[in-house]
Amino acid sequence: MIQQVTKGIKISVETSFEGTFFKNYKLHYAFGYQITIENQSKDSVQLTARHWKVFDALNNTEVVDGEGVIGKKPVLRPGESHTYNSGCLLTSPIGAMCGYYDMVNFTTTRNFQVYIPVFRLNAPFALN
Q1: For residues 110 and 89, what is the distance between their CA atoms, to the nearest angstrom?
Q2: What is the CATH number of the domain that holds 10?
Q3: Which residues form the ApaG domain (predicted)?
């Protein structure tokens, strides 16, 4: 498990390899990831947006921006957490992801970013 804390918000990531399949005459590698966002601060916060960079071993980079996570903008009071599952497709069996969440602190009304640590996406057969 990969973890990182930014301004009292802990991000934990677990990954899984889901398999391969052909799409548009090209082999793709499917990966899943589970992210837990835990509010260890003394203030209530809300996740408003996400920014991802997805890298693969063929030197392809995809940038993904969007509101919330899986259609939600969770509000986390102190001590609360939010867990969600998502995934991505790569054209190589090895890759990585990183990024950040845009959040707002309800006490100070300030926006801030919470960094998502780099996590690797590896198909088991690609490692030796």
Answers
A1: 34
A2: 2.60.40.1470
A3: 3-128
